[in-house]
Amino acid sequence: MKIGTFVRATGIGLILLFAVAPILVLILAAFDEGRFFRFPPRGLSMRWFIAAFESAEYRASVTRSVVVASLATVISVGLGGLAALGLVRGRPPGQAYLEALILAPLALPLVVWAIAFLQVLSYSGLGGTLFGLILAHVIITLPIAMRVILATFTRIDPDLEAAARSLGATPVRAFLRTTLPLARGGIAGAAALSFLVSFNDVVVSTFVAGAGWVTFPVRLYAQLRGEGIDPITLAIGAMIVGVIIVGAIATELWPRRRGR
Amino acid sequence: MRSPREAGGGTSLSPTLSLLFIAPAAILVLAAFGLPFLLLLALSLASPVEGSLVPDMSNPTLAAYSRILGDGFYLRTLATTLAMSLATAAGCLALALPLAHWLARRAGRARRVLTAIVLLPLACGALLPTLGLVHLLGPLGVVNGTLRGLGLIASPLPLLGTQLGIVIGLIQAFLPFAVLPILAVLDRTPPVIEEAAITLGATPARLWVRIILPLAWPGLLAGGLLVFCSALTAFVTPQIVGQGKVATFAMLAYQQALQVLDWPFASALAVTMLAALALAAVVTFSLARLRP
Amino acid sequence: MRHRLVGTVAFAVAALPALAQDFAGQTLVVGTWGGDIERLLRTHVAEPLEAETGARVEFLLGGSSDRMAKLYAERDNPTMDVTFQNIYEAPQLLADGLVVAPDPESPAFKAIWEGMNEGCYAMSLVGLGIAYNKQLFPEPPEWADLWKPDYHGRIAMAPYPSSESDGFLAVAARLAGADEHDPDAAFSKLAELGPPALTYTSLDEIFALMDAGEVAAAPMISGYVLSSLADWENIGFVFPTDPGPVLVRDMVCQVANSPNPELARMFIERAVGVETQTAYAEELMFGPTNSSVTLSGEAATGTINTPEEVATLVQLDWPWLIEQRPEWTERWNREILGQ
Predict the structure, then answer these.
(1) Is A41's Cβ below 8 Å from some Cβ in C?
(2) Average pLDDT per run of 10 along chain A, which is 260 residues long?
(3) Global ipTM
(4) Quick one: which of A150, B164, C137, C278 is 20 to 30 A from C263 by CA?
(5) How far apart are CA C320 and CA C170, in angstroms?
(6) In the CATH scheme, what is the homologous superfamily, with its name and number, of domain B79-248?
């Protein structure tokens, strides 16, 4: 059993290493003093982190990305969750087609769709607006959110809800008290994926975003094609990684302390 | 006992009510995705105008489609792209299932932090991790350096500019899409089923194939679909890891849509891809129904 | 005719300080590349323009092909007023009526070297030369040296279409005794190099591999390459002489039917003005198009900045190349990449 544990730990460790190895390269490169994405780093420095904080343009673009991603996440998890519930718990006519419809945006090369979307948007006089940008992002994130929540709902026994109702709970209350808490993990996963996909979208945003809504990835790519990677973006990437890990540790510790 | 694959999914909503639940998402997709898609369909039938990039939509033609279908180059590229996307989905699921299972059952208090770490490849966009990967996979990179140092290979493995390298890059990029749904599903299945199987003397192989795999099935299905579609439409990773030496269908669509600005042809490429997927879905669906 | 009239009026208005605040509340949208170009345009063009007119200038960042696609998608309802494009795109935009033709009576037009305004106003002059690994090429190479057997399969290229790859095809055609009007000569000569060692989309990718000697050389555009060389001691850059470097231009365009045409013209005047053009040359090694700019030191030697230097450059038939693009893309995918 001990050997088994060791083999398992090594295997899991290797998978995790595979997942994050490129991120480690990115973090190390962010501390390189040079102007290029080099690896291994040749001279350590904090200059790009300082430059990131000093750049009003980068600060503004990260803030915009957070705003857009938050709105897109709330809408796609809300609508996607509702649709997933309808698909799993009801047997609506044309169930398979309805699911395929909501998933369809996953199956097109986004750049081609984005150009068509921009034409429709521009024709409706909505070119360059925040509304158009959010709408475009929701189309990308809604299928992801819907599919993840759908998978979670299929593993939640509807009998639980039925039991709650037989004990006198209203349908809404029964859902909120039984199914929703059980689906919390799936909803959180859907929200995390939606947020990150929206936060990092460049293909659609490049076309649809107006000048007032240049997001962080759009700014990153705009420079790439002429000059290459701005090391400031490496520093921002490293800081995003830091925020996520610190956030995960904090949420792990916080409820427990409260519980004591 | 019902098999785990069929657990859940009972009906508790009337068809009308469930349609009401689905309606907002469906209407949004119909409007914001469907309308542009109709335009795209129309564009794919438009005919090019000499000396202009604005196509003539009043004069429909199937020229773009016959250019795709009448020529082995595009169909071969489509087949290669589908195969690479399948390999990516399989690779992601093979790594994600044990990882998600371990996170769900054994990680304990490390779980939340490790799950966050699994998400990181998605957190910095496709580009920065992909460039990081290039530094690892290159002829002078860490991977080849380590393998050479261990004496496992004599000359560097060609990982950049190959299909293998691209699939590795895509697995790395999209692993979170596979891990999260499987984790969410495994969380909703009681560990006692597995414990009972072990108590009853199931071998590890039987445990994984007969118990864990069916338990995780909805998650595998969701994760596999998300990874497959993302790999199919990705172009940053194939372009950079592939060094422009391996053409994928999405890269060709990107080139036509953005660089050549031949929108009728780019649209026809996109429609072809969607049609191929729809066909694959119908075939899979009918095969699944045929099974007793 | 209407445009010319509007232009004259606009310049007259711009010249009157009393009317300066007339543009308050308006926002000029300028599509351009991010990074140093955005920074220089903000300092030397946008900020003075904002101070003078009371308008706001916002930059829409992206690559030039993104902007090109956006111009076509929004052609009935444009959101950009000014856009920066490459020479391989600008003539097509004018042909499709998406940009306002350069006005020969405008100060901007007259300030720019003759013959450089093609489709839009010429913003900067750069040349397609050779970036190379100094160990592999002890002497700066000529174009023909790239065809030596030692370097087979070790030459990197830009994606097609681009100024770089159109220019490299034209060079290959000239080495084969023809020019870009003979695609068969161009493609078969280029295919002799073997498959590209790398199709690069950013300087980081290519310089890392060139520094390590994995890539021997690549046709690249001066400008950013020159201003980056300080970071890479193993990499050199040369303008060959037989044939000479291919002339490549960045263009600045006024979008047709844009919301703020007067402001757009004022922006373009400042962009091609002496101050901005000098800053481009001194900080980015982009050659000025404004004939009144005088440079000294490193900027003078590194950039293309005199009519004599322009005369040594290979000038391509861009409208022809644009027309060939769909067919050449197919050939590039099959004959160069698919080897």
Answers:
(1) no
(2) 81 94 90 78 85 90 96 98 93 89 93 94 91 97 97 89 86 88 93 96 91 91 78 91 91 62
(3) 0.92
(4) C278
(5) 12
(6) MetI-like (1.10.3720.10)
